[in-house]
Specification:
single chain, 177 residues, alpha+beta, disordered N terminus
């Protein structure tokens, strides 16, 4: 019994001693914390390539924000060495003419250099790569990428079709309102 009382007394003394933090107050420890310096912010370009399980987004760090056109120009160069090492490829077919993208308020106007029916040579996901890359570029209006309308213009057709790239990387039509 005396042994148990001694043990309880020791435990009680240890618990009442506190957590070991002294009451010395603040102690100088060097320069204050600092964040990113002005002009050192980086921006990301989100490109879509094809992986073993379909479309896959990759991020490339840039020094400045990229327009939809600049982002598509990066896509057309294909995956870089590290992306190829991860098994990523492109299925964007060889385009005959210039692919053009212009940002609008919450949307991107995408001008194909040829009709979709002539865009063979890829594996079928090439147009989705283009649309999802354009939708994920920086667009005025502050909409998140799944809400950015991509208005696709085909030469020889007066109809403009409107699609979005959802969060899973699937191209979906925008219902007529």
């Amino acid at each position: 019994m005396k042994h148990q009382l001694a043990w309880l007394a020791a435990l009680s003394a240890a618990l009442s001693a506190g957590c070991g933090v002294g009451s010395t107050g603040p102690v100088p420890a060097g320069a204050p914390a600092s964040g990113l310096q002005a002009g050192s912010l980086s921006h990301d370009a989100h490109l879509y390539f094809v992986g073993p399980y379909g479309l896959q987004a990759v991020t490339r760090e840039l020094d400045a924000s990229a327009t939809p056109q600049e982002t598509l120009d990066l896509l057309l160069k294909g995956p870089d060495t590290a992306e190829r090492a991860r098994g990523l490829i492109t299925e964007v077919p060889r385009l005959h003419g210039r692919l053009t993208a212009r940002a609008a308020d919450g949307a991107v106007d995408l001008y194909l250099p040829m009709p979709v029916s002539n865009m063979n040579g890829g594996g079928g996901l090439g147009l989705s790569q283009i649309i999802c890359t354009a939708a994920n570029a920086e667009v005025p209006g502050g909409k998140p990428p799944p809400e950015v309308n991509v208005r696709v213009h085909e030469p020889g057709y007066s109809t403009i079709w409107i699609v979005r790239c959802n969060a899973a990387g699937n191209v979906v039509p925008v219902p007529n309102r």
